[in-house]
Amino acid sequence: MNVSVAHVEGSKPARLAVMADNSQGLIDLSLDSLYTGTFEVRTKSATAQVLESISPDSDSAISSPFYTSMGDNGDGSDDDKRHGLHFAYVSPERARGWIGDNRRPEQFDRNTLSRVEVRNSLGPIRLHLPVARPKQPSNGSSSIRR
């Protein structure tokens, strides 16, 4: 199953509810960089991967497993306002988290959040979540922080 969900160019972010369920084959689901909300991927006998890629509107694009952010640093810094990928739980067969700032989803009205749920019994899952990053300055120095 290959699914790609993207906003119309120039549109505002929409609230989405996506559920993909399969029993044997690979699920490969991609969202665009306007997605903000929660995600959960779960499989019984295969690998669940959440992949981050720099969005096409930045200077470069990469795709790699991203398992670094586990929550809020709580200091009120600018990092709290950055749009990023955050994990609440990660294992080889399951991953749960959110795309947005550092505030945990529990701090928001559940009816206003987008959500993605992907389940597979015997096949692997790949969820691609492009995250917008600032463009690199023209002087060649990098402003991308992880």
Concise synopsis of the structure shown:
0% of the residues lie in helices and 42% in strands.
Describe the 3D structure.
The chain has 146 residues and is mainly β. It is 0% helix and 42% strand. The protein is built from no helices and ten strands. It has a five-stranded mixed β-sheet with strand order 1-3-10-5-6, with no helix packed on it. It has a five-stranded mixed β-sheet with strand order 2-9-4-8-7, with no helix packed on it. A hairpin with an 8-residue loop joins β5 (48-54) and β6. It is globular, with a radius of gyration of 15 Å. The model is unreliable at 58-80 and 133-146 (pLDDT under 50).
Largest sheet: 5 strands, mixed
Radius of gyration: 15 Å
User: Given the C-alpha coordinates, what overall shape results?
Assistant: globular
In the sheet with the most strands, the strands line up as 1-3-10-5-6
- How far is the N terminus from the C terminus? 31 Å
Which class best fits the helix and strand makeup?
mainly beta
SSE run? EEEEEEEEEE
Indicate the mean pLDDT: 76
Low-pLDDT segments, ≥5 res: 58-80, 133-146
How large is the share of residues in beta strands?
35-45%
Annotate the secondary structure layout.
Blueprint: E1 2-5, E2 17-22, E3 27-31, E4 37-43, E5 48-54, E6 63-65, E7 84-91, E8 94-100, E9 114-120, E10 125-131
Parallel strand pairs: 1-3, 2-9, 3-10, 4-9, 5-10
Antiparallel strand pairs: 4-8, 5-6, 7-8
